[in-house]
Amino acid sequence: MRTDILLNVTLLIFLLSGSLCQSEELICQADLGTLGGSNSLASVINDAGQIIGWSHTLGDEAHAFLYQNGVMNDLDTLGGSKSFAYAINQSGQIVGGSNILMTNDEYHAFLWENFNDGMQDLGTLGGSESEAFGINDAGQIVGVSDIEISSGKSHAFLWENFNDGMQDLGTLGGSNSEALWINNLGQIVGTADTANGEFHAFRWQNGKMQDLGTLGGSNSEALWINNAGQIVGTADTVNGESHAFLWENFTDGMQDLGTLGGNNSFGNGINDAGQIVGTADTANGEFHAFRWQNGKMQDLGTLGGSDSEAFGINEAGQIVGVSEISISSDEFHAFTTSRCARNLSWLLLLLD
C-alpha cells in the first residue's frame, strides 16, 4: 500500500512539472468572438489586458474594437464604413486607420482616447491617405501617409500633437517608407525603400534613419521594437525564403529565428522580456502562431482550423492574434492565450 502511494505521488509530481505532458508550458487559445459578423482579428494587448483589433459587424463591415472585461466594444469610424485598430498603449489610447466618407475608401490615421470623443482624425503629410500603426506611452504616434495628391509616394511619419501634426521621417534613399512601431524611448522601426529599389528594415532615432540590412536576401521589414531596443521583423534569406528575425545591435546584425518545420516565418511582436510572437510554416504546409523564447520556437496551434498568426504579446506573456476556427470554414476569429487547464482530479482520487 505504501508503495502504491509513493508511485502515485511520483506520478503527480511528473504531471505537475510537465514531464509526462509536454516539456514546454502548455498554451491554449481562447476565442474572443466578433462584433456580430463572421471574422475578427486581434492586433495588440497591453499590460492591463485590453485588446484591440478589428471585426466584421452584423452588416459585414470591418470596425475597430476594444476588448475589455470580457466584452468586445465597437469603436465606430471616422465617418466611413470601415476602421482598423493597430496599437494601444498602457493608458488605453488607440490608433489605427478609418475611411472618412461612406462614398470612397480614403483612409486617415486616427487617435481614440475614450467613447465620448470617439476617433480623432490625424490628417496626412499632404496627400490623400494615412494610417497609424504604433503609439507609445507618451502618446507619440507613428505610421504612413501619402506625401502628395496622386504622387504614389508615401512616407513614414511621427505625430506628437495636433498643433505640429505629422513629421516626415524620409526614406533610405528610395521613394517610400512606413513606420510600424515606436517604443518609450522614441525609437521607431519600419521599412523603407533603398536607392536600388529594395526595401529594408530601419531604426529611426535622433533624427536619423538607419538601415538594418537583411538575412542575406533582398528585402526586410521591422515590425516591433521593445523598450530594451530589441527589434523583430521579417527578412529575406539567401535562398529566397522569408524568416523571422531578432536584431539587437549592428555588430551581430539579424538573428534568424527559423521556422516550425516549413520554409517561412514572420516575426510580429516582442515584449521587454524578449519573448517573440509571429507565424511560421509547419512541416505540413500550414501556418501556425508561435512564441519564441530561450532560442526555441513553440507552436501555439489554432482554434480548430488550419492556420493562425500571433501579432502581440504583453509583459505578462499574454498573446493575441487570429486563427481559423474550423477546417470546414473560412471564418477566422481573434484570440488570446492562457495556460491550459490540466484536469488532475482523477489522479488526486488515487491519493485519497
Question: What does this molecule look like?
Answer:
The chain is mostly beta strands and 352 residues long. The chain has a single domain (29-350), classed as 7 Propeller (Methylamine Dehydrogenase, Chain H), CATH 2.130.10. It has helices at 2-17, 345-350, and strands at 27-31, 36-45, 51-57, 62-68, 71-74, 83-88, 94-99, 107-112, 119-121, 130-135, 141-146, 154-159, 166-168, 173-182, 188-194, 199-205, 208-211, 216-225, 231-237, 242-247, 254-256, 261-270, 276-282, 287-293, 296-299, 308-313, 319-324, 332-339. The strands form 7 sheets. Strands 1-28-27-26 form a 4-stranded antiparallel β-sheet, with no helix packed on it. The chain has a 4-stranded antiparallel β-sheet with strand order 2-3-4-5, with no helix packed on it. The longest helix has 16 residues, at 2-17. It is globular, with a radius of gyration of 22 Å.
Stated plainly, the CATH topology is called Methylamine Dehydrogenase, Chain H
Please report the distance between the alpha carbons of the first and last residues. Answer: 12 Å
Count the domains.
1
Supply the helix-strand structural class. mainly beta
SS element count, helices: 2
